[in-house]
Write a structure and sequence with these properties.
Elements: H1 2-16, H2 21-28, H3 32-44, E1 49-52, E2 58-61, H4 74-83, H5 88-91, H6 95-108, H7 114-123, H8 142-150, E3 152-158, E4 167-179, E5 182-189, E6 192-197, E7 201-210, H9 219-231, E8 237-244, H10 248-254, E9 259-261, E10 271-278, E11 294-298, H11 300-317
Antiparallel strand pairs: 1-2, 3-4, 3-7, 4-5, 5-6, 8-10, 8-11, 9-10
């Protein structure tokens, strides 16, 4: 668009000083003739720009002229470049647009702020994905985005975790949320908030019907409700365990979501006590990989659950030497 090109020319001249018309044309992928027409348009709008011909000529702004199109402070500009590192833009198809926007911001920054902003982008990297997260299904956010920005209802074919078949839902979307590298659709279904993991959406269709959101409710409001439901879900089984000290760090990393309180560690004992909370007894099988390095002290039904699970594993592998099926 011509308006974008004019802004780009203005910012380039503001940053670089005198720039040859051919260089501007190459950068903006237009002809030199178009660049001169754009310069005339800028001049007509009151921008003091002029061209000098000759070997060392070029296009330049009048000395002392400057427009600050951002008004950003040094900290604000650095914050933008950290935000750019979070990687969500690729999934939304906005990588190229982000790069272009940041170049414009960099050009418009007051000269004293530019080095700090550029250094931030080189010295701070934000990777929102977890270590060894394993392979993930490809996520196509195009249709979900279309519905979100067009304010239209969505029809989803969605498979819940553990469900054998997908189900069909008609929902009113509020927006998309990226949580630890995983995308979620936040929507109302029958006027109640619900969370849909994007990689479990089998198909999505944007309907002609306008979205029907609850009055005065925004994406941040609905997300807060749903986030609390997940994080503050009451556990049905309180478990007390003891952990060998040399495995405590791994225990805390792997079972962070189940911890109900941090261990009381005196820094000396061979064993450290900890408390966990689970929804149902079967979920406590999460402790099995720690073998004899974690012992359940209570309740008795959890000790029995792990004993039975360990016995089943032993029985499965007792005949391993003779080969499967023998």
């Amino acid at each position: 668009m011509k308006s974008d090109r004019l802004l780009s020319i203005l910012l380039l001249l503001q940053t670089r000083g005198r720039v040859p018309a051919r260089e501007l044309a190459d950068r903006l992928e237009v002809s030199v003739r178009t660049i001169y027409r754009d310069i005339e348009a800028l001049s007509a709008s009151g921008v003091p720009v002029y061209a000098e011909r000759g070997r060392h000529g070029g296009i330049e702004l009048l000395a002392g002229f400057r427009t600050d199109v951002t008004g950003l402070t040094a900290d604000e500009s650095r914050a933008l470049f950290i935000l750019a590192a979070q990687g969500a833009h690729a999934a939304l198809g906005l990588d190229a647009a982000l790069g272009s926007a940041l170049r414009k911001v960099m050009a418009a920054l007051p000269a004293p702020h530019r080095p700090a902003a550029e250094l931030t982008s080189r010295r701070v990297l934000v990777d929102a994905t977890r270590w060894k997260g394993g392979p993930r299904r490809a996520v196509d956010l195009d249709v979900l985005q279309d519905a979100v920005f067009a304010d239209r209802r969505l029809r989803l074919r969605y498979r819940h975790s553990g469900a054998p078949e997908a189900r069909t839902y008609t929902v009113d979307p509020y927006g998309l949320v990226s949580k630890a590298g995983i995308w979620y659709l936040v929507a109302d279904r029958r006027e109640k908030p619900q969370l849909f993991r994007a990689d479990r959406v089998k198909s999505a269709t944007v309907l002609d019907e306008p979205v029907e959101r609850r009055p005065g409710v925004e994406l941040t409001d609905v997300w807060e409700v749903l986030r609390r439901q997940v994080e503050e879900r009451p556990g049905g089984v309180d478990v007390t365990v003891r952990v060998r000290r040399d495995r405590l760090d791994m225990f805390l990393r792997v079972l962070a979501s189940a911890l109900s309180e941090l261990p009381d560690d005196d820094g000396e004992s061979e064993w450290v006590s900890a408390r966990l909370s689970y929804g149902v007894v079967r979920e406590t099988r999460q402790l099995l990989p720690f073998a004899d390095e974690v012992e359940v002290l209570s309740p008795p039904q959890v000790r029995e659950e792990l004993r039975a699970a360990a016995a089943s594993v032993t029985a499965l592998y007792q005949g391993a030497d003779s080969g499967p099926g023998e």
